[in-house]
Amino acid sequence: MAVLQFREALRDAIDEEMARDEMVFIMGEEVAEYNGAYKVTEGLLDKYGFKRVIDTPISELGFSGIGVGAAMKGLRPIVEFMTFNFAVLAADQIINHASKVRYMLGGQASVPIVFRGPNASAGQLGATHSVAYDSMYAHFPGLSVIYPSEPDDAKGLLKSAIRSEDPVLFMESEQMYGLKGEVSEEDDYIIPIGKGKIKREGDDVTIIASGKMYHVVKQAAEQLAKDGVEAEVIDPRTIKPFDIEMVIESVKKTNRCVIVDEAHPFGGVAAEAGFLIQREAFDYLDAPVQRVTLPDVCAPFAKNLFDIWLPDAKQVIDAVNTVTYRN
Amino acid sequence: MAKNKQEAVFTPIGQNHSKNGKFEKSVDLPPATRKKHTTLGLSDDDVVEMFRLMYLQRRFEERAMQMYQKGKFGGFLHLYIGQEAVSTGTVFALNDDDDIITAYRDHGWGLVRGISAREGMAELFGKATGCSKGKGGSMHFANTEQHFWGGYGIVGGHIPIGGGLAFANKYLDNGQISTCFFGDGAVDQGSLHETMNMAQLWKLPVVFVVENNGYSMGTAVKRHTVGEIYERAKGYGMKHACFNGMDALTVYENMKEIADEVREDSEPYFVEIRTYRYRGHSMSDPQKYRTKEELEEFQKTDPVERIRQYLLDKDVLEESDIEEIENKIEEEVLDAIDYAEESPSPEPEELYEDMFAGTPYFHDKK
After folding, report:
1. Using CA atoms, how far apart are residues A171 and A148, in angstroms rounded to an integer?
2. Nearest residue on chain A to B149, judged by CA atoms?
């Protein structure tokens, strides 16, 4: 095992796949000469040159569509967004084209493309820079959505995403790029898309969280253990396909579940997973499933308001206390 | 503020609400070429084939319209009638492996790029034997094997994709160029401007072509966009052209020069081809936004009639030869209708096919 920063794990994945397949290239704002807005692509220009590491203008709609067209002709674009908050400008290409071209042309084209970049909030950045888009994109048929929480997952899943024959949205976090973790040194380390991981075993409650929220939950689980509550923490890693089998199996053991989701409450991952759990494990539940999400309000700037807005370990512990009737 | 409500406040006032009775054409046609097909490097057989393809597009759509009115199929039906010289002149100007991508007025493009009348009609009928297996319908004809990448339904949505096809050609250094067609309505979309900027900056081998048919649905060109459309290119330092799209030889002559140049120097082109749509935007369009006089004026320049007359004037074909071609096409189109009617609908399980090139995944599918 090597200890790598999250950004280094991503870079290794991109580097390995670019070395392996000449059809893979990366484009986005500041990815080449600036070496990446968050240094994910650092050194790639020197290694692969201007043909395969391409700086774009600030034209998310345009360069995403160029990626879709290039993918239809057999290239494997990695399109980096400086944040998924800016990718909203490219939503027509992701939602109307990348996900639908193959179906509406009766299978005559495929779109092997990865759209990647940081998702959700990163401190006091205000309303337009703080939204989690994973469940929104998961809504659309044909798109896979990955939101890993640790460097090891990031590396193995990004390699899978680049090799996928279909469009994948790969979500990261500005606040996790510097996070260090052990990463497998296995040659050609691949994690299949759609498989969750039990990151902490426990019998008392199942807590589900991906991406940045996993770290909030990890902290909460450590606190809870001190109080004698052993949480089982599942990181689905992939939002879609969602590993509901792993969740159901865990809930059948713990009989209680809390879902932590960095999206707003309406129609988010928590809503969907919660529905599936009540349907598939109704007789096993000892309490209604609880969720911890953002409130149905925009991200505020003021520090005190922001801290209320973003889910934290205390909110997770409160939800666990609710499902264990300790409140 | 305007003193009375008959004066324009924001959008210029259109024909339907104009009180001055003046008849204003929505699009001005530049003159057609005076060169003979032989001077342009086309053989007699080529120009006969051009006529055949144009007549096929015309009859295919006239019959499709009848079938639609009879309720044989549903969805939208946007007819290309009047614009056939554009598709036909273009495919003769391009190499067979050059890319074509277009918007939803796509039947003509499919028919000139290898989709048979049978496969086209079956697609309109939503049958499994259609060119897109009945999954796309009228707006999503495609034949990617012959580099026709499809018709697209979001105005301007396919323009960046057209740029992407060209990007791939440059990346692969395969000598192919890409052509991206869209209507005058799409020139107002930001996607065009983002793509033009990148195409010029990155020197992509792409030709952006506006088929200016006078109307963005019911809104005349002068009511939806400022200035001359082709002049937009100047803002990007892009080469541009504007020519007559009611004459297949004119389209051929210009597109050939442009395609050769783009292939040679890998620099994009922005082209406005002026044409006219004889039918409504779609089948549900009452067409109150234009005058009968205008329609009649443009029908005098009918591109199918024009090439037919050309063949006679230049003694390429006799009237009887032409009638024979027309009869064959009529049979081909009627056969296509029988084929479409008799073809099977997609099997229910095909609902879940063609979503994924890799492992399929359908959330919560039982």
Report:
1. 7
2. A109
ipTM over 0.85? The verdict is yes
Of A64, A141, A166, the CB nearest to B357: A166
Say whether pLDDT at B53 is over 90.
Answer: yes
Which domains does chain B show, CATH number per domain?
33-210+221-295+314-343 (3.40.50.970)
- C-alpha A35/C-alpha A41 separation (Å) is 6
Domain ranges of chain A: 2-183, 197-323
pLDDT band at B336 (very low <50, low <70, confident <90, very high): very high
Q: Which of A8, A17, A29, A60 is catalytic?
A: A60
| pLDDT value at B115 more than 90 | yes
Query: What is the mean predicted confidence (pLDDT) over A277-284?
Result: 98
Instruction: Look up the CATH number of domain A2-183.
Output: 3.40.50.970
Give chain B's mean pLDDT. Answer: 95
Single pTM value for the model: 0.97
Q: Which of A75, A52, A76 is nearest to A158 (CA)?
A: A76
- Indicate yes or no: CB of B133 within 8 angstroms of CB of A106: yes
Q: What's the pLDDT at B320?
A: 98
Among candidates A25, A75, A107 on the partner chain, residue whose Cβ is nearest the Cβ of B133? A107
Catalytic residue check, A60: yes
> Across residues A12-21, what is the average pLDDT?
98
Cross-chain residue pair A74–B160, CB shorter than 8 Å: no
- What value, to the nearest 5°, has the Cα angle with vertex B160 and ends B158 and B163? 110
CA distance A248 to chain B (A): 14
B171, A59: Cβ pair inside 8 Å? no
- State the Cα–Cα distance between residues B206 and A69, nearest whole angstrom: 12
Distance (Å) from the C-alpha of residue A193 to the closest C-alpha of chain B?
A: 10
Instruction: Quote the longest CA-to-CA distance of chain A.
Output: 60
Which pair of tokens denotes residue A7?
């950004």
Question: For B283-293, what is the mean pLDDT?
Answer: 89
Residue-wise pLDDT tens digits, B16-51: 777 666 667 889 999 999 999 999 999 999 999 999
Distance to chain A for B343, nearest Cα, Å: 16
What residues contact B362, with CB distance under 8 A and at least 6 apart?
A141, B352, B355
A170-226 pLDDT, tens per residue? 999 999 999 999 999 999 999 999 999 999 999 999 999 999 999 999 999 999 999
Number of CB atoms found within 10 A of residue B116's CB: 17
Note whether B168 contacts A74, CB cutoff 8 Å. yes
The CA distance from A213 to A219, in Å, is 10
Beta bridge partners of A197: A235
Catalytic residue among A129, A172, A264, A272: A129
Inter-residue contact A318 to A327 (CB < 8 Å): yes
To test the contact with chain B by mutation, choose from A73, A140, A190 the residue with the greatest count of B C-beta atoms within 10 A, namely A73
A57 and B198 in contact by Cβ < 8 A? yes
With CB atoms and an 8 Å threshold, state whether A57 touches B136.
no
Q: Does domain A197-323 have CATH number 3.40.1280.10?
A: no
The overall longest dimension of chain B from CA atoms, in Å, is 66
